[in-house]
Design a protein that fits this description.
Elements (H helix, E strand, L loop, with lengths): L1 H14 L4 H11 L6 E8 L6 H15 L2 E3 L6 E7 L6 H13 L11 E4 L3 E2 L4 H13 L7 E3 L16 H12 L3 H17 L4 H21 L16 H40 L7 H8 L3 H12 L3 H17 L6 H7 L5 H12 L3 H9 L2
Parallel strand pairs: 4-6
Antiparallel strand pairs: 1-3, 1-4, 1-5, 2-3
């Protein structure tokens, strides 16, 4: 179960809120610390690679280095949470792991891995900020670059001119995830207006806008939507040409994502909820359900929370606790038996979760049932 636990922890840390009691338990299994300083490396596989083989090779390399956790693969994206080493800089540590991963180039692939790297943050609850930065770094990457740190160009010069501030960049990603398309469109077009006002050379303006569109494709891949990297169909010579071409590419991307969401969301959320209710006593993982339903684990997590108002781990916990309450009415069943019947493997952990949810320990709750 360790690979599944690892994958679920990464997914929940980057895209959702993990219930404290679950996170604590899973971190104990994986050997991590909630206060650890960590950063994200987002690996993008070449389009012609054998993805599963490459994914397994990357997981093996990261595990061998004992430097972090590997999340579920979505499309061509693989997120890695890397824990900071105290005796070296994070750049030195990141570069070392990057070189190890780049050596995994597959014989069947004509391309190389591309890796975006976010900055380190203290506390795993903040590592999603590093993920957003890694996403931005990967979207701004052009060949021949193989890896890129957030906030720097290929030459190592900090990015400042013509760029949105860092918080706006991260908010741009969140707006895409939440489907706030009018806000997304306004952000892209406003960027064009600023370039026009500052009389930025058209090639620079075009590149800056393309990077925003590429970010949308990266987020689309989180949802399991494979979209072509948008490119302008002609060499723009006027600002109005650039605006029209940008509007067309943006509309095409949005339409693709909206069509996908409207076709799969309602039924997938219903399937996911039904599966959890019917199998709450089994080892349920987000990655396993995503494979069963045919969606991205990251997208499944967000979709379920959007539709049900609760993340899947908390919903699974509710199902298990409700079943435990019913079983407690049978005096012939011990609490240990009930623990295993509802899907937990440790009576102490079950007791901790039960008290967190119900405000009383299982034994105290059972006393109220029998009146003593």
């Amino acid at each position: 179960m360790m690979p599944l636990v690892e994958s679920d922890v990464v997914t929940q840390l980057l895209f959702d809120r993990v219930h404290d009691v679950h996170l604590s338990d899973m971190l104990q299994l994986l050997g991590g610390e909630l206060t650890s300083e960590a950063f994200i490396m987002l690996v993008l596989l070449p389009g012609d690679s054998h993805k599963e083989t490459m994914y397994n090779a990357i997981k093996g390399k990261v595990h061998l280095s004992e430097s972090g956790w590997v999340g579920a693969m979505t499309g061509r994206q693989i997120p890695i949470i890397v824990f900071r080493e105290e005796r070296r800089s994070y750049r030195s540590q990141a570069n070392s792991l990057v070189q190890q991963l780049l050596m995994l180039r597959q014989r069947e692939s004509s391309g190389d891995l591309c890796i975006g790297i976010g900055r380190p943050y203290a506390g795993l609850e903040n590592v999603k900020l590093s993920y957003q930065e890694a996403l931005l770094a990967s979207a701004q990457m052009e060949q021949p670059a193989r890896h890129r740190f957030y906030g720097e160009s290929e030459t190592g010069i900090p990015i400042t001119n013509g760029k949105q501030d860092k918080e706006s960049e991260k908010q741009f990603i969140e707006n895409i995830r939440q489907g706030k398309w009018e806000t997304v469109r306004e952000a892209v077009m406003s960027l064009l207006d600023r370039h026009d006002q500052h009389q930025t050379p058209l090639p620079h303006s075009a590149q800056d806008v393309l990077e925003r569109l590429w970010i949308i494709t990266r987020v689309a891949e989180e949802m399991g939507i494979e979209v072509e990297k948008p490119l302008f169909s002609f060499q723009v010579t006027q600002h109005e040409q650039l605006r029209a071409e940008t509007d067309g590419l943006l509309s095409k991307l949005i339409a693709c994502i909206v069509a996908y969401q409207s076709s799969v969301q309602p039924d997938a959320a219903r399937q996911m909820k039904q599966y959890i209710m019917e199998n709450s006593d089994k080892d349920i993982t987000l990655e396993g359900m995503a494979q069963r339903i045919g969606l991205s684990p990251f997208y499944m997590s967000k979709m379920f929370k959007d539709h049900e108002g609760i993340n899947y781990i908390d919903f699974l916990t509710e199902c298990r606790i409700e079943k435990a309450k019913k079983l407690m009415a049978d005096p012939e069943r011990s609490l240990k038996e009930i623990t295993f019947e509802i899907g937990y493997n440790d009576p102490n952990y079950f007791s901790k979760v039960f008290k967190k949810v119900c405000g009383a320990s299982p034994s105290d709750y059972r006393k109220t049932i029998f009146g003593h």
